Every structure is written in C-alpha cells, then in structure tokens.
Amino acid sequence: MFFWGNKINGVTFSAAKKTKVSLTHRKRLWEVAEDNITFTEEDVDGLLFPHKDALLKRELDRLHNEYGAPSVYSIIEEMLALTECKRTLSLLLRLRGVWCKYRVKVSTYPCQERTRSYANDLLICIAKAVGIANEQSQLKKEFEEFKRGTASSEQGKNLAETLRMEEIILLLGKADLLTTAEEKQTNYLTKRNSLGRQPLEPLQSFYCPITGDVMEDPVETSSGQIFERAAIEKWLADGNKLCPLTKNPLKRSDLRSNKTLRQSIEEWKNRNIMVTIASLKQKIQANDEEEVLQSLQKLLEFCVRSELQREWIVMENYIPVTIDLLSANNTEIRKSALMILYALSKDSEEGKERIGTVDNAIGLVVRSLARKPEESTLALQLLLELSRSSIVRDLMGSVQGCILLLVTFMNSDDSVVANHASEILKNLSFLDQNVIEMARLNYGEPLLQHLCSGTESKRMSMAKTLSEIELSDQIKLCLIEKGALKPLLELLSHSNTEMKSIAVKALQSLSTVTQNGQLMVKEGVSDLLFELLFCHTLSNEIREHVAATIMQLAMSTNSQRSEDVQVSLLESLDDIFKLFSLVSLTGSNVQQSILRIFQAMCQSPAGSDIRTKLRQISAIKVLVYLCELDDRKVRADAVKLFYLLAKDGNDDTLLEHVNSTCIGNLVQIIRTSDNEEETAAALGIISYLPQDCSMSQHLLDAGALDVILDCLRGRNEHALPRNEVVENAAGALCHFTLPTNPETQKQVAEAGFITLLVSLLGSGSSLTKKNAATCLKQLSESSCILSKPARKNWMLSCCIASPTHGCPVHLGICSVESTFCLVEANALRPLAEVLDEPDPAASEASLDAILTIIEGAQLQNGSKLLAEANAIAPIIKLLSSSSIVLQEKALKALERIFRMIEMKQKYGISAQMPLVEITQKGRNDMKSLAAKVLAHLNVLPEQSSFF
Question: In whole angstroms, what is the distance from residue 752 CA to residue 748 CA?
Fold first, then answer.
C-alpha cells in the first residue's frame, strides 16, 4: 500500500483513528526520508555542540528561504518532541544533501515549476521507499485514498495539525505524476484559450530601477523598494551603503525575497510564452524556409529553457509537425527539427512515446542517420534518447536499416558516435528479434550476453538463434573466444532433450570455423558428442546433427599448425572400430557424416595411422559393399574414403576385396556419376590398383578405357574436366600402357591417347604431367621392338636403290599409332619442359621417358634429338636437385650422353661445377660416377682415385 494507505507499519487506518493519525503520518515521513537520503549521523557530530539549537533553526530557515522548500518542513520542527535533537539535525542535513543534487536545475526554474519538480521528486522517492509502482494510475489511486482518509480523520485534530496535513496534500497535488496526459492537455488548452492571442507588455513594477530590465528574482528592502537581487547585491558589493532610490542606509541582510512579485512576473512570462508558442506553429508550416528556420530556433529556445515550456510545446501538438520537417530538403531545417525532438524527448517518457507513435517517425530519424555527419550525429543522439523508452525501442528495431546503420556507427573513429551507437544497440537488445538482427550483421555481443547470463528460456532462445541464422566466420570465432562454449555445453549436458538438440545445432553452426572446431576438440566437446551419437534413445534427427558436428570437428583437425599441440578425435583401434561400425547400423545421413569424419581423419596429421587402423578392421570390405548402394550420397562418400585407403595400401589388401564386380561398379560410377569428386575418387582407386595383366583385363572388360578417354577429353565440349579427374584418369591409364601387355598398348594408341597425353604435358597439373609422362615412358619402351626396318625403293630407270626415310632413333619406320614413338609424337620438347617442374615426381617421370630414346645403340642419335629438344640443360640442372633419386638418374644419363664428343663440347663446361659438388658431398657410389663423368670431360684423369 501507499505510504498513507490503509495500513502503515502494521497499524490499520481504523486503529490510527484512535491514536494521533498525524503523528503516525509524521513518523512514516521520517522513516521514508531516512531510508532515501544517504547521510550519516557521524557526518554532523562536529556540528552539534555547543550550538545545536541555533544550528537547527538556521538549517530550517535556509532550506525554506534559499530553495523555496514548502512548509512541509515545518513538520520536522515537531519531531523534536519525538526524538533527539541530534537525529533531527542529521535528517535536516541529509535533506539538504538531496536538495543540493537538484540545486543547479531547480534554482533556475520558476517557482511554479520548482514546486512541481520538488513534488514529483518527493512523490517518487517516497513511493519507491514503500514499494509502490511508479505508475500514474497507482499513484493517483493511493493519493485519493490518502485524501479521503485524512478528511475522515480530521475530527479531534487541532487547527495547526489540520493545516499541516492540508499543506502536504496541496504540495503533493502539484505533482504532475498524479495527472493523466489527457487531463494535462485539457487543463492546458483551457488556460491557453483564456489568454488571448497577443503577448502583454510588462507592468512597470516588473522593471528593476537599476538595470531597467524585467526582474528575475526581485528582492525588497526594509523601506519597501524592489530591485533585481543580482543588481542590488552588486551595488552593495561595489561599496555603496545607501539605497539607490531612498538613499537610506542599506545592508545585504535587509534584503528579502518578494515572492508575490516574483510569482506575478513568472505568471506574466508564462502567459506570453504560452501565447508565443501557440503562434509559432503557423510560421513553421509556412513555405518560407527562412521564416521556418527562425521559428524553429525560437521554439528550440523554449525547449531548452524549462521542462514546463517543453510540456506546453508537446501539448500544442508540435511533435507531428516537427517530425514532418525531417523530410524537408533543407538540411538546416532537418537539423533544427532533430534538436527540438531531442529536447522534447529528453527526460520525458511522454515525449518519447509521442514521438515514437507518430507514423514513420523513427523511419525519418533513421533516414537522417544516413546523411552527413552533423545531421547524422543529431539523429543518433535522438535515437539514443528514444531507445530509453520501452515502447519506442520495440518499434525502433523493426525500421529498415536502423540496426545496420547503428552497427556501422559502432565502428566509427568518433568515440562519442561509437558509444552512442553501442548504447542504443544495448537498449534495443531487450527484444530477441533485435538481438538476432544484430547477430546477422556481425554484432554478437548482445546475443552472447543473453546466452551466458540470461534465464534458461533466454539461453535456449539464443542458442536456437545460433543454430538457425547465417553468421559470418568472424562473429562465430568471436562468440567462442568470448565464452559461448560454456553455456552451450551446459545445455548439451542437460537432461532435457530439447535443450540437447538446440545445443547440438548451435555447436554445429559454430564448428564450421576451423579455430572453433579445434578448441572444441581440446575442450572435450567431441567426447560428449560421441556419447550422444551412441545413445540410441535419441531421435534420428538429433543424432544426424551430432554426427554432422563431429564431422566439422574432424575437418578442423586437418588445419593444425605444426607448432601447436596436435589434437585428434580418435586414437585407439577400439574407438575407431566402434565409430566405423555405425556405418552399417544407422540411417543414410548419419552414415554420410561418419564416412566424412573418417575422410577428414585420414587427411589429418595423424592420417597415416588412421588409414592403417581402418585397413586393419577391414574397412575396405565395408566400403566395397557401400559402393554398390543406390543411395548416391552415401556411395559418393564411401568411394572417397575408399580412395584415401587405397593410396598407401598394399596390393594384397586391395586384391583381397577388389574383384571384377567391384571394378565394374567403379567404372559404372565413373560413367554415370554427376559428382566430379566421386568420379575423381573412383578413377583414383583404379589408378592405385595393382598393375598386372589380369587387373588390366578386368578393367578392359568393364569398359574402363572408354570412360578414361572421356574423362581426359572432358565429358562435353562446354565443360573442362577438373584437375583431379584428369590427374587420376591419367594415372588409371597407366594400367593400359604397360609394356608387358602390347595389345592394350595398341588399343591406347589407336584410341588417340598418345596425342592427348602429349598435350597434357603442357597444360596439366604436376600430378597429371607425372602420370602422362609415365604412360609415355611405358609406351616408348615398346617402340624399338615395334619399329620395322626401313625398306629400300629401287629406281627402275637406273636400277639404283634409294633408302626410305625412317625414325632417326629407332632406325625404322615409326608412327604414333604403330610404334608409339616419342619422336613421331613430338613429345621430346614437352617432356624436356616438364624437367623444370618443381615437383620432383613429375621431373623424374619425364626424365624416365626421355631416357628411353638413348638406350643402347640409340645413344648417339637420341642425344642429338635431346639437344635439339633443349633437354640436355635441364638434365644438367637436375644434378643440383634436392632429390637424390633425380640426381642419380641425371648423373647416369649424362655419363652416357657425355661419351659423345659433340655433347661434351657443347654442354661439358656447364656440368662441371655440379659434378664437382657431387664428388665432394654426394654418396660414395655417386661420387665415383660423377668422377667418371668428369673424366669424360677431361677434368679428372682416367685413373683418378674417385673411380
């Protein structure tokens, strides 16, 4: 109940009638004052003695005279009878502390406004102390009950006590917190309409005899003369001791406030201001921009002058008129309108609500927010004030572009602008939809705050938001860094299934960032997720999200830095077996995620160990079965994992599980799949199969050669094949170019593969070039056998035989299709260019192919062709390669090439330094060979100790 309600301190109102009601009221006022004014008794101990009575009286007089405090303070005098003088004096000084807080503001207000302001403050203070809601309807209800209770209990009171209670009622009745907006509007219009339309001239008595201006604070001398306080005090301070008018002696202590005249002056001023305010509206709505600006400036002066005048402006319905001006073309008009709206909204809940409820008001302010800096700052200032209203801030977030602009301003170099924007966003964050929109715009602080410290339902809502909206990687990373993981793990560990589901989905969203995934693994999130994955009582949907989240965590472990502590999801064989076993026991979505988990783990820093353990548990057997499924998504991921296990697997493992049926399935996948990653993986599996005649025959029977040709050429003329498809297709082709199987070699040549392989040497990736060179090398190894001796043609005219031009290397008739000749295929120059590849494997394969044309008796002619193809210099360069294998092969090639005098003369000098370095730093066998080459070059004697 209110402080004057039906029950006070356990004493009912009816009981109070039997006691001294006014005494109870005064005691309660005392308690309220003591509870709300922070000042200790010790603070005034030094002031109490020996003149405590004089000090008390002086303090009472000062409060009453200096601040215009109402005579309610006279009640305190009677309290001397109820308590010690020390306690009363302490209270008075504490009351003084409260008044000092308002001194600057209140002392500049007119008496009427000062009384109203004090009444409002006192009403709020007391209502708060006794637990009454600060709402107009509640305050008014309790105040009316108090008045009725006071009237019914007046019998038995003495006259002084009755007058004091009437003074209290009169004072608190001036608080406009007890008046509805409609009542204030009606009262204002009634008064304003009674004033006329023209301002009145001031009365002569309003002027100060010294300054000639209308007085603000008139004071009266003992002789009855009236002056402006500041003017007469300055007169006396300048050394004058006589009254300016009467010439009688005058002291400062003789001056007394003339409250009656001051009130009359204030009433005259208020009357003229009220009339002026009403007359400005027509000018503001005029078409003359200069007149509009002048009128707005005048209105702004009234706004900043006092709260009462701001209320009059509001009641004159200036708010919608001013808001309309925000759409004006003139920048200065818009800026003035923003300043007026800010003044009307500041410290006024009613002003804020009136602005916010005008149609499109917030939209127009937001539009100003996007304009030039000065106007933008004013709009931001207004939005900050409006955002402090619960009604307006609910509207603000829904205005298009508002939150976006605020988030942008939050990153401003201007600290004031950035702070204002940040505070507005904080105020708007009370609405979940605004928090969601902020998160979408990369501002996640409010979401994080609600997630970490909100109620359970609020935390669930924010976690659900994380799982549903698209967030940038930047904000995801920021959320985890600032503590989002802990509340999500708490939700994940909750017994409530819905909470688990929401937490899993949120973790799934955040785990897409590599750093987040790695942190989650370190914090043990994967262990909790594995427990949920193996929990068969959970719904399939939740387990699908759990599996997808684990997949993200597994993928994050692939990007660990070498200097960091390495983390992995699974290490033991039992754990790997347990997880892989779910591939055969769960739905397709979970199957797909588990297969991808193992794909990621196989490519992690610990991938070699994972691949070995998967082969140990016969994972390939399961994958071969999954490759036969109609579910294309599961099949695609099974093929990709199969490919990873085949890379470094041994031939026996593959031969154990890969039969003609499996090969047929792989070829069919290559032929029909529209998933290029799946196609590349299937081709990769084939490329890693053991290279023997029976496997090649299985591939031929399945039609592999045709699909490989399609993949190398591109499946249609408008789409170029992906690098990995071409790489693995070229690798798979190696099965058909083995010199032990000339029939398949012939099919390859007749299908046009050789020309295609030569073109890949100049356009493919390093792996493609390596595989293409390997195929050409294998084909070239059969060229000598297939090349036919050149026939002689007899010229009948003279019976002289003329030789038919044959291959300069093979000394017979060669062609691309019949003998697979590298010379005829123009492959030497492209192969020579591959020697400069940074990838040692590609260089080695190219060198192997090149060396096939200088074997045996082909050395002399082959060397000349290599020189013409610019291949000798790259071979010499390989002597300095970091690859020992390449060094050794290049050394052996040069040992044969430099047997030719022409080659020694042309290239010998450039080879000397790398050869000398090998003799100094190379392996013993290579030192000997290098010395032998140097002997060919006449750098070392034939009998050198290096041999």
Answer: 7
Q: Say what the alpha-carbon torsion angle 464, 469, 470, 471 is, to the nearest 10 degrees.
A: -60
Residues spanned by the domain of 501? 429-510
Q: Please name which of 881, 777, 887 lies closest in space to residue 839, comparing C-alpha atoms.
A: 881
Contacts of 297 (CB under 8 A, 6+ apart): 336
What are 219-242's pLDDT values in tens digits?
Answer: 999 899 999 999 999 999 999 999
Query: Are 66 and 159 members of one domain?
Result: yes
Measured CA to CA in angstroms, residue 829 lies from 519, 813, 866 at distances of 52, 21, 8
815 occurs within a structural domain: yes
Cis, bond preceding 50 (omega within 30 deg of 0):
yes
- Whether the CB-CB separation of 310 and 348 falls below 8 Å is answered with yes
Contact 637, 596 (CB under 8 A): yes
CA geometry: angle at 354 spanning 138 and 346, to 5°?
A: 85
227: helix, strand or coil: strand
Q: What whole-number distance in Å separates Cα of residue 641 and Cα of residue 645?
A: 6
In angstroms, what CA-CA distances link 31 with 5, 74, 97?
Answer: 15, 16, 17
The pTM is what?
0.70
Domain count along the chain: 6
One domain, residues 741 and 799 = no
The residue type at 197: R
Q: Is 247 exposed, middle or buried (0-12, 13-18, 19+ CB in 10 A)?
A: exposed
pLDDT tens column, 412-443: 999 999 999 999 999 999 898 999 999 989 89
Is the same domain home to 575 and 677? no
User: 3-state class of 515 per DSSP?
Assistant: helix
Q: Tell me how far CA of residue 413 lies from CA of 381, 382, 886, in angstroms.
A: 17, 20, 59
563 close to 525: Cβ distance less than 8 angstroms: no
Residues 6 or more apart whose Cβ sits within 8 Å of residue 88: 56, 76, 79, 80
